[in-house]
Amino acid sequence: MSSLWLLAVLAIKAVFANNEQFELYKNAKPGHMELDPKYGHIFDTEFFQNCQDNRIAGGGWESEPNSRPYQVGIYVPTANSGVSFCGGSIIGPQAFLTAAHCLDISNGDPITIHLGAHHMPPTSADEGLRTLTTSHFLLHPEWNAATIQNDIAIIFTNLDYIVQNEYIQYIPLASNPSESYLGKEAVVSGWGLQGDDHSAISPVLREVKSTIISNLACRMAYMGQVQRHHICLSGEERRSTCRGDSGGPLVVDGEQVGVVSFGTSAGCEVGWPPAFARVTTYIDWINQNVEFFRKHQRIMEQ
Fold first, then answer.
1. Where does the UniProt annotation place the signal sequence (predicted)?
2. Half-sphere exposure of 23 (CA within 13 A, CB side)
3. Contact predicate 102/246, CB 8 Å
């Protein structure tokens, strides 16, 4: 086991020649808000105290390499020279979608985004890897960190264009606000923790499938915290998102319907519904800002 770990470390170092950057990536803090003290009033864990001994191993399963070509890994520099890790999705030639809470902790230094990767941090095995850095992002104007409302953000490239290939592709966004997706099977992917007994992000992309439940049921689970601009999975069979999955895509029939936002601080495997920002609520805001940025970039290039 130790020899396999050594080979993995050497492969990562081959990609990240800068040892300082390698150490930052290796020790990146999985982006999730449930364990942040400032959100403690929202995620009360007393209800779950009797559930912990009965949990089963979760974390979904490893994705087929390059089967989720829209998925990206995002490293965000934070205060005190730290780094936070989140997921995201490619939504166009110059734009990515992620969660607002992933970016509002940024210290202003460039964000690093890995496209076309299966491993995280990427290794030499990731043949389709492309890495971009950018400082351009936009939080939703009504993002509220105190209540976790409107937890959605767009990241824009600098002057780089994302060219689609077998490893890297845009994902269509759901656009019908009247569609509830109730009862539909959805898949969510990411490099988040594989379970409550893990402390580091998964070295490979993983995914889980579950069923979308009503907002009413999810609202009851979170004592009113869930609103119309959320969408939730059932969490049955302890299938859920975990720390480090934040910002990643929730997909139904090839369209992105949600962005990973939050779950319960009691753990990823207690069978509680994970909550997502509902894409259809924000589709006009997304399209308007992506188009505005595109036109601005054209002017800059002239």
1. 1-17
2. 5
3. yes
* R_g of the chain computed on alpha carbons: 18
Share of the chain above pLDDT 90, in %: 63
Instruction: Give the tokens for residue 170.
Output: 């845009």
Q: Which domains does the chain have, with CATH numbers?
A: 71-170+283-297 (2.40.10.10), 171-280 (2.40.10.10)
The token pair at 82 is 């730290």
b/e string for 238-270 if b means 16 or more Cβ within 10 A? bbbbbbbbbbbbbbbeebbbbbbbbbbbbbbbb
Q: Does residue 14 surpass a pLDDT of 60?
A: no
d(C-alpha 270, C-alpha 55), whole Å: 6
pLDDT score recorded for residue 295: 83
Q: Tell me the C-alpha distance between 60 and 57, whole Å.
A: 9
d(CA 67, CA 54): 33
Distance in angstroms (rounded) separating the CA atoms of residues 156 and 233: 28
Residues 6+ apart with CB under 8 A from 99: 31, 86, 151, 152, 153, 246, 247, 259, 260, 261, 277
Nearest CA to 28 among 195, 201, 242? 201
Residues marked as catalytic: 101, 151, 246
Omega of the bond prior to 110 within 30 degrees of 0, cis? Answer: no
Look over the chain and give the mean of its residue pLDDT values, rounded to a whole number: 83
